[in-house]
């Protein structure tokens, strides 16, 4: 038994929220430990920081999206620029190795930041044993060895896992979740994805560009219900035109193998008619569920919801004094940057400061091609709330930089309050939407009016000029349309 150590705060989970919370705690002078058990893809089996986002989510998927985009540009779009590149091929193992190297580099970077900020990285599975405000006892177990620590505060940052479908066993070889779909060693001729959400569309885009015939099975009658309805309709049209085959309103009833080993997916369409779809690889991407069980929350009285989320207030305080929870394990969107902001807020409040998170200014992004990015309210939300608003829209087909880039798909839409002109929501469909949403997020954070955006000088020619034009369109009118 290793000697018991006392921390000001112990963070359980070293994912996006947990590692950022730990670093901020160190910066604030708190004695902090951060426990993590999952080795993810570490070849040595060592627990790795970074959580789902870094290891099997955001970062590796963006690396593959980038590789697949480069391949598609060479294959399909270079010709219009006068570039001849016939016979281009894709070396999938090299692409996967590049992705893995990026993840490993960033994981090592987090461990460096832990050392820099005096964060004790506790490699092992954390289980809460007992305690109350000011003194919580936790065991950290790994390889038959157990260390007990005491902490004055606990931060639960245990994240989430892929949701499973009854009757479908994930082997991450042929039937995969997001982790398996990031590690294919060859391009599957036929790929079926169950779930038309963010993960499903991003992974489908990667392998479609590389040559897969991709079918997306979605139980809902429409694509991307979380998006502004006009955005969802535009993306359905654009992605279908690229070759993604959508089966909407479809309910999966089972998966089996035929005699030659190929997968057979059975589903029923909205009319109730049964269908069988053959595929070489199957990806289940039907959302995620919080990890809140088996860590001992019940031993100290922390309340969870029926769906397994840790119950917290607006400052991420749980039902037990001195215990906080952040990220995917609590309410709100499962986004890495939301978890990071919550981690910073919690540590600042523990240190006696006034940390806060503006949940109305959390941007969301889908990294398809074109990308989708939004922040604030959708039109359907404003209508449901009875909020009077004005909408301004500007297409990239009228943007000089987009024309020069050879990609004019998409638009920017600005929603502003009809009386105050304060920006309520911004929605972007564009190749570089992820890089343009920052200005819109800042506008909402500082309660800018649409006129404010319209009066700010925007460099020309740029894609983000379209945001200014859309803001103007919500008022006196766009200048270039």
From TrEMBL:
Active-site residues per Swiss-Prot or TrEMBL entry: 460 (proton acceptor)
Q: Which InterPro entries match?
A: Class-I_Pyr_Nuc-Dis_Oxidored, FAD/NAD-bd_sf, FAD/NAD-binding_dom, FAD/NAD-linked_Rdtase_dimer_sf, Lipoamide_DH, Pyr_nuc-diS_OxRdtase, Pyr_nucl-diS_OxRdtase_dimer, Pyr_OxRdtase_I_AS
Please tell me where NAD(+) binds in this chain.
195-202, 218, 287
- What is written in the cofactor note of this entry? Binds 1 FAD per subunit.
Catalysed reactions listed for this entry: N(6)-[(R)-dihydrolipoyl]-L-lysyl-[protein] + NAD(+) = N(6)-[(R)-lipoyl]-L-lysyl-[protein] + NADH + H(+)
Q: Which residues bind FAD?
A: 62, 158-160, 328, 334-337
GO MF, one term, reads: dihydrolipoyl dehydrogenase (NADH) activity
One cellular-component annotation, GO: cytoplasm
The record's listing under PROSITE patterns reads: PYRIDINE_REDOX_1
Q: What class of enzyme is it?
A: oxidoreductase
Question: One biological process GO term for this chain?
Answer: 2-oxoglutarate metabolic process
The EC number of this protein is: 1.8.1.4
One Pfam entry name: Pyr_redox_2
Q: Which residues form the FAD/NAD(P)-binding domain?
A: 7-343
Q: Which SUPFAM superfamilies match?
A: FAD/NAD(P)-binding domain, FAD/NAD-linked reductases, dimerisation (C-terminal) domain
Reported cofactor(s) = FAD
Q: Which residues form the Pyridine nucleotide-disulphide oxidoreductase dimerisation domain?
A: 362-471
Which pairs of Cys residues are joined through disulfide bonds in the record?
53-58
Where does this protein reside within or beyond the cell?
Answer: Cytoplasm
Question: What does the further note read?
Answer: The active site is a redox-active disulfide bond.
Q: Report the family membership.
A: Belongs to the class-I pyridine nucleotide-disulfide oxidoreductase family.
**What's the protein name?**
Dihydrolipoyl dehydrogenase
Organism source for this protein? Piscinibacter koreensis
Give the source lineage, highest ranks first.
Bacteria, Pseudomonadati, Pseudomonadota, Betaproteobacteria, Burkholderiales
